[in-house]
Amino acid sequence: MDGNGRWAKRRGLPRALGHKAGGDAVKRTVEAAGALGLECLTLYAFSSENWKREESEISDLMNLMRRFIERELEAFVAEGIRLKIIGDYRAFAPDIVEKLDAALERTAGGTRTLAVALNYGAQQEIARAARLAAEEGEVTPEAIERHLFTADLPPLDLLIRTSGEVRLSNFLLWQSAYTEMLFTDTLWPDFGEDELRAACEEFATRERRYGGR
Questions:
Q1: 168 annotated as belonging to a binding site for a ligand
Q2: Looking at the whole model, is its pTM more than 0.90?
Q3: 169 marked as binding residue
Q4: Are residues 128 and 147 in contact, defined by beta-carbon separation less than 8 angstroms?
Q5: What is the pLDDT along the chain (213 residues), one digit of tens a residue?
């Protein structure tokens, strides 16, 4: 979900309002995913590298996270959305960890999944999974996969990167081995149902060979 800062800058607004608009885009996109019948939607919300940002921006992001959980939790429960966190979210402030733990418990019975990457980095995830696999025995692709944060999620079919950036930025590197990718110039705060539907329609036109002919 990239482009919050540029969205705000183009409008002469502080970055905090760009992140707030990005939060609104999250709500729209989650609702659109449900309407389109998607089994799982994964959002990259806060990377392990984002700690390098200005303290004021990190504080804005943390406050936005608090408000989003408080505002959307009941809707998630009512709509049957299971919240899944990938990454080491316990590095956040205790009150945020408490809110996330409560949200995970409240939504555990959901039939479709919203996975949110928090304090996540794919290289760190792979290293962690390989270490855990080695503790059990032989390090194989199957052993590593069992220890990924995404072990209980369906395979990654489509990865969408917004704002014109054409790179993965340490996101789901292992899971993306045969994933279809779509890069759009749309800034994240402008993303919503029309953009997600168009992405799914584009995905439906692609022939997936998984290395075969």
A1: yes
A2: yes
A3: yes
A4: yes
A5: 999 999 999 999 999 999 999 999 999 999 999 999 999 999 999 999 999 999 999 999 999 999 999 999 999 999 999 999 999 999 999 999 999 999 999 999 999 999 999 999 999 999 999 999 999 999 999 999 999 999 999 999 999 999 999 999 999 999 999 999 999 999 999 999 999 999 999 999 998 887 766
Q: Is residue 145 part of a domain?
A: yes
Q: What distance in Å separates the CA atoms of residue 7 and residue 30, rounded to the nearest whole number?
A: 20
Residue 87 marked as a ligand binder:
no
- The overall longest dimension of the chain from CA atoms, in Å, is 56
Asked whether residue 101 falls in the same domain as residue 139, the answer is no
Residues annotated as catalytic (active site), given as ranges = 2, 50
Q: Quick one: 91 and 141 in the same domain?
A: no
Binding site annotation covers 167?
A: yes
Hey, what are 92's tokens? 């956040």
Q: Is residue 15 part of a domain?
A: no
Residues 135, 111 within the same domain:
no
Amino acid making up residue 30: V
Query: Is 129 inside a domain boundary?
Result: yes
